[in-house]
Design a protein that fits this description.
five-stranded mixed sheet, about 130 residues, Nucleotidyltransferase, domain 5, 3 helices, elongated, alpha/beta, single chain
């Protein structure tokens, strides 16, 4: 008959054997596995000299005054003033726009839209960081 007061014994030997085998396999295969991500990096030119490119710098301060290369304009008059300013400029000239961080988003987009409509496509929004 079965004695209900006797506790059954748990045989953990097969479990330990399996774990040791898996640990040995992991230790052997881990140094062999390598992760490689292919990255295509651009190559630089060693023969081309750096050119000093003239750029147009536009700054908008918190009082909504626009400065184009040290000339001040009001934000309302900016489109006409910029078109007159850009008449003699090459359309491939880079334009850098700096704006005070307290400005309304619409004011910065208004300047960006005006510059794009004037035909400039190399436009960058410059931040301090």
């Amino acid at each position: 008959m079965y004695d209900f007061n006797q506790k059954p014994e748990l045989n953990v030997t097969p479990l330990v054997d399996i774990m040791l085998v898996l640990l040995a396999i992991l230790m052997v295969t881990a140094p062999v596995m390598e992760f490689e991500e292919p990255v295509n990096l651009p190559s630089g030119s060693k023969t081309k000299q750096i050119e000093n490119v003239k750029k147009i710098t536009i700054f908008i301060n918190k009082n909504r005054e626009v400065t184009i290369n040290k000339n001040k304009y009001d934000l309302k008059d900016f489109p006409d003033s910029f078109i007159l300013f850009a008449k003699t400029k090459n359309r491939n000239t880079p334009v850098h726009i700096r704006a005070d961080k307290t400005l309304v988003y619409d004011d910065v987009i208004y300047i960006l839209k005006t510059v794009k409509e004037a035909g400039f496509f190399k436009v960058s929004l410059i931040t301090d960081g």
